[in-house]
Amino acid sequence: MTDVARATFGGGCFWCLEPLFRDLKGVTDVVCGYAGGHVPNPTYEQVCGKATGHAEVVQVTFDPAAVSYADLVGVFLTIHDPTTKDRQGADVGPQYRSIILTHDSEQARVARAVIEEIGLARVWDAPIVTEVVPLETFWPAEEYHQRYFERNPFAGYCRAVIAPKVAKFRKAYAARLKAA
Predict the structure, then answer these.
(1) HEC profile of 75-142
(2) What is the model's pLDDT at position 53?
(3) What is the pLDDT of residues 144-156, one digit of tens each?
(4) Cβ(133)–Cβ(41) under 8 Å?
(5) In the 8-state DSSP scheme, what is residue 53?
(6) Is 13 a catalytic residue?
(7) Exposure of 136 by Cβ count < 10 A (0-12 exposed, 13-18 middle, 19+ buried)?
(8) Contact 67, 27 (CB under 8 A)
(9) H/E/C letters for each residue in 1-23?
(10) Count of CB atoms situated within 10 Å of the CB of 18
(11) If you ran DSSP here, which 8-state letter would residue 58 be given?
């Protein structure tokens, strides 16, 4: 049995992040959910109400022999805008904040190092505001959120927002994608 690890990221709508991470070599599973807040087992409606403290996140299960945590953090920081507080495009609110929820102290160290590296490389025109905090509890989102883009490719949000993001990602990361 191969060792696996987990990484948890929030960077806007989880529907946008999930298909991108799912395409990467070394990633074995991606689950949409909620984390970083104070309400146990929140619902989507509660999280959208902005009072739970939770962010929409994806929990990525990966094979560290195939893709490193540092690589995942680097990808994460380039597939969303980590310079805007509580916002990704038209999605506004604390549930859309840029956040890395670490599973241990080594992940925290690596996440901060990669943030610093990307900041020094001036990948973005503004400072990175991504939070790095320990993961307390990950709450899986409702079933209808899982693989949303895959199940609903013709929905308006999928066609207008997710599909172009997926196409851009696949072009930029072609060498790092799973075989079709």
Answers:
(1) HHHHHCCCCCCCEECCEECHHHCEEEEECCHHHHHHHHHHHHHHHHCCCCCCCCCCEEEECCCCEECC
(2) 95
(3) 999 999 999 999 9
(4) no
(5) -
(6) yes
(7) exposed
(8) yes
(9) CCCCEEEEEEECCHHHHHHHHHH
(10) 25
(11) E
Q: How high is the pLDDT of residue 89?
A: 84
Q: What is the pLDDT of residue 70?
A: 98
Catalytic residue, candidates 13, 16, 32, 158: 13
**Which residues of the chain fall below pLDDT 70?**
1-2, 180
Mode of pairing for the β-strands spanning 55-62 and 5-11: antiparallel
Q: 158 near 141, Cβ under 8 Å?
A: no
Say what the pLDDT of residue 2 is: 63
Nearest residue to 134 (alpha-carbon basis) of 106, 170, 168, 154: 106
Distance CA 49, CA 43 (A): 10
Strand partners, 33: 57, 140
